[in-house]
Amino acid sequence: MSDDKVDIFVIGGGINGCGIARDAVGRGYSVFLAEMNDLASGTSSWSTKLIHGGLRYLEFYEFRLVREALMEREVLWAMAPHIIRPLRFILPHHKGLRPAWLLRLGLFLYDHLGGRKLLPPTKTVDLKNGSLGEPLNGDFAKGFEYSDCWVDDARLVVLNARDAAEKGATIATRTKVERLEELEDGWQVTIVDQNSGAKKSIEARLVVNAAGPWVDSILRGPLGKNDARNVRLVQGSHIVVPRLYDHDRCFIFQNSDGRIIFTIPYQGDFTLIGTTDQDYKGDPAEVAITSDEISYLCAAASEYFNTPVEKESVVWTYSGVRPLYDDGADAAHEATRDYVLKTFNGEKGAPLINIFGGKITTYRRLALSVLEKIETAIGAKGATWTERATLPGGGFVELEFDQELRKLQSAYPFLHDKVAYRLFHAYGLDAFKILGDAKSEEDLGRKFGGGLSEAEVRWLMQEEWARNPQDVLWRRSKLGLRLSQEQVDSLSAYIQAAS
């Protein structure tokens, strides 16, 4: 006998799972989402932080994916203009690699495939004169500048979960799916609280398996399909170093092995460099950057910059596993980034929708496709609605970020400019709710470093499912780059006492 009954049970609290839960509950379905760890604790927080069409995917003729992704850039920017910002990319012309005519053709398609309206178009830039080319060595005279967007990936996941919860979905973090059992009219899902060990059963008319790198593990474990082999796990790693240059552009560098890397201004004082592509075997939870990957990224960037990027300058690294659909490609970087949806029907006809692959940029479109399958399986409810709906903290026009930031600074003049910017960039209009009636820094409670206050931590625990310092410092923010171990210990003690 089950404790609860819902229309849809979603396994996985990454971008796809949370996006599907949000879309479904907004249409009137009852939804329960279970995530075995923290939201965005897997693939979704280890990306290159880009909302982009995927320029290099044109080489693999993935025109549908690129067009869909390009169309989504400005849709997502309007949904969450606080955590998504436009970013200009400079692609230096490397004479020994792709010819200039091919780059121009690719960028022409990039400008015109996706209905670009607000983002500025491609232009040619002189890298020998002016500040844009100053960080580069003398081998690069010409480049191409084009537009995409930057995103705080983990916060995008959390905001989708928040919106789903506000609309009535149950979001259960630290909750593992132990068993799936088919019933006459759906599924019985047995879940386990990872902290207490308590078990509970949920009846669902339909299950969505959005477990990312663990999608086959769900089929093999709780469902018992021991032959499930659908995803190709590809490791992508990044390094963070002190800021390499002063301007605000991202560089996209071509490598002789056919891959590309990005160097992106990051968190004000740093530069993010990535990514790698290599097949991964093992537990996705244990993925970690290798020494060879660090060397590869340093060498790839050093080929372009005046000053070499040394391994000793790396201040932080992160790695994630991308659950790409296994299309049989020879090399990891050639495997499709498109998503594949497959519906499994149990012996009694109960529907289970499995998600393989996908990109952060196309998560909303993926959710639309999943909802079409849900409607076919259990009947339609409300209409599509997410294209023009904002996420929590949004609600202002995307080009009014600076104006809204000034309002925050005017309302709370005691905030340091960098703290005000960080708060508005992370929370948007919700920053006013976090700060409340505060008239001074003291009114925000204890200080943990990096501008992190007790008021903000309370918000993260009460509204955003944060349960430990890692949730706060590496997923809800990147303040882990700035806090000392003593400050982290102080934060840990506070969270434990407040839990």
Structure summarized in a few sentences:
Helix content is 30%, strand content 25%. The chain is α+β, with helices and mostly antiparallel strands and 499 residues long. The strands form three sheets. Strands 3, 4, 5, 6, 11, 12, 13, 14, 15 and 16 form a ten-stranded mixed sheet that branches. Strands 1, 2, 7, 8, 9, 10, 17 and 18 form an eight-stranded mixed sheet that branches. Strands 19-20 form a two-stranded antiparallel sheet.
Q: Please provide the count of β strands.
A: 20
Number of helices: 13
Q: Mean of the pLDDT scores?
A: 93
Low-confidence stretches: none
Textual characterization of the structure:
The protein has 499 residues and is of the alpha+beta class. 30% of the residues lie in helices and 25% in strands. It contains 13 helices and 20 strands. It has helices spanning 15-26, 63-79, 100-112, 153-166, 215-220, 291-302, 363-378, 401-411, 417-427, 431-435, 454-463, 469-475, 485-498; strands at residues 4-11, 31-34, 50-51, 84-92, 123-126, 142-151, 170-172, 175-183, 186-193, 199-209, 231-242, 250-254, 260-266, 270-274, 278-279, 316-325, 340-345, 351-356, 447-449, 452-453. Strands 3, 4, 5, 6, 11, 12, 13, 14, 15 and 16 form a ten-stranded mixed β-sheet that branches. α1 (15-26) packs parallel to α4, α1 (15-26) packs across α7 (363-378) and α8 packs across α9 (417-427). The longest helix has 17 residues, at 63-79. It is globular. The model has no long low-confidence stretch (mean pLDDT 93).
